[in-house]
């Protein structure tokens, strides 16, 4: 999975001739290096990428305040690792840019289906007999999909904005053709499907989005300096308190008779312990 334990930032200053539209003589950018070995390697990575960025900027520049030229890692804080029976990494829990905890796994297939809120014309069409594509509609679609594929087994959860399904009888790779076809046939959110392929893993949010519990996003993003970390700790304390009455998903149906794969069961245990329950969906 594309997550790193160590991050280091290096500032890059480029002269004005590269940026004729700017008013100053120089402009400064942040370049991040990452490593799973130690901080020194992360710093070396940052230095290398700073030089790469300088060469890139001379030829093909797209203006950004914080340059994140791909280094193969997702810039999220790693909170916990979930191991398989053989001790290998099975999943990691990270904290995303808006502060929620997210379960990431290379091999356990999660899919999110978002139910789009109906606009005025769509509501009129439903009144005239058009099919209303609500949570019940997509739940029936999942039931029918599994019914045509008896070898398939899944758990279906309700989310705030739709449904989440989890395939339980086998593991997958995010770039499997079978996964792409399944996501297309089941109407999985296109952005989620694209991120799964780009990040080489499936993701499942475990805790509420802050704006659904009356909070704003954190003022800073990971990795944070000491001052930002102090402010974030205060934000996180409030977020945890407000999250307590909420759950991210509610289990609504289990489909299929196939036994649960042992690796999948480990992920289910973590997912359901944190995300699933009878509180208010968030």
- How many distinct beta strands? 12
Mean of residue pLDDT?
Answer: 83
Strand content: 15-25%
Residues in helices, as a percent range: 25-40%
Quickly give the structural class: alpha+beta
How many domains in all?
2
Q: What distance lies between the first and last C-alpha atoms, to the nearest angstrom? A: 27 Å
Radius of gyration: 22 Å
What is the subunit arrangement here? single chain
User: H/E series, N to C?
Assistant: EEHEEEEHHEEHHEHEEHE
Query: What general outline do the C-alpha atoms trace?
Result: globular
Descriptive report:
With 282 residues, this protein is of the alpha+beta class. It folds into two domains: 6-59, no CATH class; 77-281, no CATH class. Helices cover 33% and strands 24% of the residues. The chain is built from seven helices and twelve strands. The chain has helices spanning 39-59, 120-127, 135-147, 177-186, 190-199, 226-243, 262-275, and strands at 6-15, 26-35, 77-83, 89-95, 101-105, 110-114, 154-158, 162-167, 202-205, 246-247, 250-255, 280-281. The protein has a four-stranded antiparallel beta sheet with strand order 3-4-5-9, with helices on both faces. The protein has a four-stranded antiparallel beta sheet with strand order 6-8-7-11, with helices on one face. Strand 3 (77-83) and strand 4 form a beta hairpin. The longest helix is centred in the N-terminal third of the chain and has 21 residues, at 39-59. The chain starts with 5 loop residues before the first strand and ends with a strand.
